[in-house]
Amino acid sequence: MDASILDSLNAATLNRRITVTLPSKGLFYDENVVSDKLDPDDIPIRALSMLEENSLLDPLLILSGKATESVIKALVPGIKKVGSMAIIDVQAVLMASRIATRGENYEVTVSCEKCKQEGHKSDFDVTINLLAHLAKMQPLTNDDLPFFHDKIGKLHVYFRPPIFQSVIDTAMALAKANVFDEDAPTNSEIFNEEFIQKYLNRSTVVSEVSVGYFAGYIRYLKIEDGEEVHDQETIQAWLENAPSPVIDQIAQKVKEIDARFEDMLTADVECKRGHKVKVSLNLDTESLFSPAGYSKTRKNTPAGTPDTGKIESTS
Ligand SMILES: [Zn+2]
After folding, report:
1. CA of 269 to the centre of ligand 1 (A)
2. 210's torsion region: left (phi>0), alpha (psi -120 to 50) or beta?
3. I need a surface site. Which of 88, 165, 204, 233 has the fewest CB within 10 A?
4. 3-state DSSP helix/strand/coil % of the chain, to nearest 5
5. What is the pLDDT of residues 80-98, one digit of tens each?
6. Structural domains of the chain sorted by starting position, each given as residue range(s) with its CATH number in brackets
């Protein structure tokens, strides 16, 4: 097979190429995450092949993060470790490839909570312009770095935007524990030994997942006049042993970081009765890449948090 002819064939049928700026600006990445050849300001994104696109519609491949990982690697060769990429960067790349593949109009059915409460029909269809949304994503600058720092006693905590792997780990751990699949227990079940054991196990998983989730926002620790700790396992072990006020302070910062990225991951739309509704564009490849004309009702999830149900970044 002649590779150059294949290139010509592909070039002749390409929809469009667009470039994207990484919203994190690569400020939190070392040489293990991205190659130094990668310019965070100018990443060309091509359309996805049908095979790549199909992988993004497979529920199991989505949950495990494998589909997104291989698609991002294929689209952006300068990325070495997709798991360590900021979610917001992964999202920007996916959005750009969605535009290159299927155009900028994203048709979706949204549910208005206020209309529902007032007894009106709550579902309505909107078209979100993804290109306009992508243009709205203001990348971070060096001036934003002090925001990602906090001091707890004599410990400096250096934060970062949440990374892709931590969202996947959270989703996988919760799915494995079936944490949110349980129906409300009946009174007789509550006194059942088997139920209590199951409940304890689930509650342990939820606590562990919360610690792992917060750890995903921490880039490194530095003891005043002392050494730096970059190892994620050590950071997680520190969090597991930390008292509540420390966790509360971390949770507060995590909440502020989420708020910082909220606009980038949500689109503002209006229902027919004039209520403002936020639509999450949060890593939901299944609906982002669904064929044109097909839409499904979006849950309105808080931005920056994984769409896994109930992990709260507040305490
Ligand atoms: Zn409404």
Report:
1. 10
2. alpha
3. 233
4. 45, 15, 35
5. 999 999 999 999 999 999 8
6. 3-140+264-298 (no CATH), 142-261 (3.30.2220)
